[in-house]
Every structure is written in structure tokens, then in C-alpha cells.
Amino acid sequence: MDHAAEAQRTDLMTITRHVLNEQGRHPESRGDFTILLSHIVLGCKFVASAVNKAGLAKLIGLAGETNVQGEEQKKLDVLSNEVFVKALVSSGRTCVLVSEENEEAIFVDPALRGKYCVCFDPLDGSSNIDCGVSIGTIFGIYMIKDKDNVTLGDVLQPGTDMLAAGYCMYGSSCTLVLSTGNGVNGFTLDPSLGEFILTHPNIKVPKKGKIYSVNEGNAKNWDAPTAKYVEKCKFPQDGSSPKSLRYIGSMVADIHRTLLYGGIFLYPADQKSPNGKLRVLYEVFPMSFLMEQAGGQAFTGKQRALELAPTKLHERSPIFLGSYDDVEEIKALYASEASAV
Ligand code: FBP
User: What residue ranges in 79-154 does DSSP mark as E strands?
Assistant: First the structure.
């Protein structure tokens, strides 16, 4: 028996242990963030098991209601949302919640309140739920500004004020990727232990990638810089090889691949959706925070995505995020378009 490997295997870096170590960097902290995160982790474990047995448990298909975006809700959407809202409230560490599935923000009962605000998409990639393709949960965490005067302003904060962000991908394995502002780490759920174990320490997105990821079905409605960029990916004029197109249609899965392999994911604005499709508070901001923490960039077509100042809970924004050099290319195309005007 390879005792060294065995010894290594017994020194388990769980996500709780990792966050407790991180907590050491904040002498003033009283463990509130660790408690909040353990409740988010509980929600992810529940959804992971529900997604795994969805077909058997008749959780496939529509729930018969529509959400604030006018989208028909799936059974798993509703279930996941309920689980996260209850877990976050019962943590006693949250104050305001924003969910993709709820039109209004949820203000936690004052008796149960804590100092954190959580914006989340309980189950992202709804178009892929019923065909078993990877889907995920996305979350972003803020600190309230004034606990005696809690308002929507506590969640309508720029992404630069975000404390932490993450996603949990329900795919061939269940992987939770987290950043608390000190790099990005990935944890894989070991079903036999029921624990998320550190498997992807200190994720750094490659500086330049070989993959572009976009729904080309919208190409006829794209603006010039986006069309030019995708053309360059397919027919590079500088002698480099064309990029490969990879598009799963679940942001969590497309971003997870981009973080690990590099390249660029884009959901641009187009004539049909002048603000793009993806929502700022619980899709664009968390993924932009993670991408920047991993050494990449996130751009809206006009500015650094995290510097957006949202005014509505379910506001949308165009987004280009991924490897540093790839996003630089599209920033240059938008800059030359702007200077040409
Ligand atoms: P939901 O949160 O409603 O699932 O929508 C978001 C999403 O599914 C993203 O995960 C994905 O990147 C995008 O929409 C796919 O959109 P499209 O089908 O237009 O390419």
C-alpha cells in the first residue's frame, strides 16, 4: 500500500475546512461567512441529489407556473428555489435575497436577519434540465451597508463590492467553484462522504484560449464588433488556427469549461435582445468575479462588467468573459467601433 498517497488521501481538504482556513485571513471574523456558506453547500447537495434522480422521481418537466421572466418553470426550478431560500433564511446570516425565480427581493424576518445579501440563480440552464445536460446554481454574496436601514440598495450594488461568488455544476460530477476574493478554488462532491473535497486548487484561466462559446443562432442580429470577432475566431487572418466552437447552453457548464481550458464565452446584445439575455445580479456579476479572480476578464461591450451599477433586480447585460488576451481582442473591436463613430 502506498502509505504516502494513503496519508495524503486521509488529509481531506473539505470546503468547510478551506473556508475556515480562509477565515484566518480575517481576524475580525466570527464565522458568520462559514455558517452562511455551509447552508449554501447544503442547498447544492440537495439539488445535486434531486438532479441525479430527477428522471426516476418524476421531477422532469414543467411545474405548470411561470416565473418573473415569463418563462415556464420546471419542477426542479421550483424545488431548487425553495431549498435555497429556506437554507439561506435558516442560516440566520442573511438579510436580503434575490432569486431568478422570485420577482421581488426577499427581506428576511428581522428576528432571523444577518449581515449578508445573497443573489442567486437556483438552477441555471433550464433549457437543458430535461435532457440531462449539465446545469448549475450560481450565487453572489454582498455585505449589507446599514443593518438598521436595509433597502434594495443593499443588493443593487456594483459587482466590485461583491465579497464572494460561486457556482455549483450538476454534471458528470458535482463541482462547486468558489472565490472569496483570494483566488478561485474548485471542490468535487464525494458522494460516499457527502463532502466537497478540494480538487481544483487555485484555478488560473489560460491567458489565451482555443475555444469560443456563443449561440450562433443569434448571429443575424449581432452588432458589428461581435460579428467581426466571431468571424476572426473562424477565419483568423494572422496565420493562427481557427478556434473551436463549444456551446452547451448552460452558462455554468460553459463558464466551467472556459475557466479550466481558456477561451471566451459571449452572450452579446443583439437587435432582438438589446441588453443581451443574462441577468446582472445572479449570472453576470458572480461569473465576472470568478473570471477576474482566475486572471481573466469580463466586459459588457462598453465597460468592465463588475463596474456596472444595476438599478433593477432582474436587469440584463451583454457579457464577454474568459481568457485575458481573448477579451482584449473584443475590447479592441468595440473601441475601434466607438472611435469610428
Ligand atoms: P435560465 O437561467 O433561464 O436557464 O437562462 C440562462 C441560460 O440558460 C444560461 O445558462 C445560458 O448561457 C443561456 O441562458 C442560453 O441561452 P440561449 O438558449 O439563448 O443560447
Answer: 94-99, 106-107, 116-124, 135-143
